[in-house]
Amino acid sequence: MAEQPSTPAAFGALLRRDFRLLWRRRGDALNPVLFALLVISLFPFALGPEPATLARIAPGVIWVALLLAGLLSLDTLFRADLDDGSLEQLMLAPHPLSVLVGGKILVHWASTALPLILATPLFATLLYLPEGTLGPLMLSLALGTPLLSLIGAVIVALTVGMRRSGMLLALLALPLYVPVLIFGAGSVMAAAQGLPYDGALLLLGAGLVMALVLAPLAAAAALRIALQ
Amino acid sequence: MNPFMRWLHYLGAPPNFNAFAARWAPWFFLAAVPCILYGFWQALFVVPADYQQGDSYRILFIHVPSAWMSLFIYGVMAVNGFIALVWRIKLSEVLAMSCAPIGAAFTFVTLATGAIWGKPMWGTWWTWDARLTSELVLLFLYLGVMGLYAAIEDRRAAARAACFLALIGIVNLPIVHFSVEWWNSLHQGATIRLFGKSTIDPSMLPPLIALTFGTKFWFAGSLLTRTRATMYELESGKDWVRRDLEARG
Q1: ipTM of the complex in this document
Q2: How far is B134 from chain A (nearest CA, A)?
Q3: How many CB atoms lie within 10 A of CB A3?
Q4: Taking the domains of chain B in order of start, what are their residue ranges?
Q5: B151 and A172 in contact by Cβ < 8 A?
């Protein structure tokens, strides 16, 4: 029997594989950005183009648009691996499933949320985000979107065996997203009013640290429940 | 093994639980009715009106016990979910799943009575503050548990998945409880404390205590009945169900 690779090596191999798969269908990576762009452009149509109105709601709208884009992309986290059977192989692998799942979440965040964060200055310009709040917005998104991905991964792991899980996934995940949205959008709203905003960001950071440790473990447990 | 653990093991077998639930559920309902009637009578006719709110504060005698139940039942559900996931006891899975609709109902009553009270007192049905929002999230968590349980074909796999979701949602419980202390809230702070001095007027306590016990008894009876019905369904092919139904006519 060949010597087993170490867990870090397996983690690295999984990352390389997932990134390679993504690269082969790189067009898909733009879809969340396009979705968020469309959602954001709906608001000027619905509310009228006054810059003052749009500027006031810009932080919340951008946060909600990114949250929804992330929610819609959650389904792809395990879908392809479930369909071709590699998810079962991951569960049989002699490495902690939580580490491997953590790798998958990392790739998923980098391929769906990171492009959204990079496109945020564009969204901010479209909605006349007030000067000086782009920094807090980017910071809150950088802390908040991984948190959303981690929480969402646990929920999507629970529903992974189901054929049509889309609506249910949203019903289960959105209540758990509420606190992230409150602190994320709240920090930018505070910054827009000239109030201190670092408290909300620190709470987001604390939540992220906790989720980084617990969410992969919970997602691995949920996968085992859903697929046994 | 001590007698209590032996009793729990005995009760874990569906036929034994069925006999236990059939015997005790009516007594719990029977205990609940006088508690609730006495509580309502006290709340509506005996307790003096509030010096500021007049008579409309009396809805709190429904609101507060329901709010306590909404948290208490979630705790019961999570504990049973934990037992179900760790020791794989079928009865705990069913108990946890039977908690969800009852808890959702109490949460809904809490939100509804709060809104009805809020309209004349705060001038609005609803406000987006921490206590109200976290209670609403609690309702969504109950509905999520029920939805997940209903969505998966295999009943045991569905119960385990929903139990896991219930365990995740437990982070919301301290948020609901402490929301009035952590954030500036329109909702009043706690006035009743188990430890330390309550700031509620002593004359308002008897109906509150009666209704607290009444809702607890009602929950116990309802939980046993629901669990028993679900057990019949899940075990419908088994011998004991047929024998039991024949014996009951």
Answers
A1: 0.81
A2: 9
A3: 5
A4: 58-243
A5: no
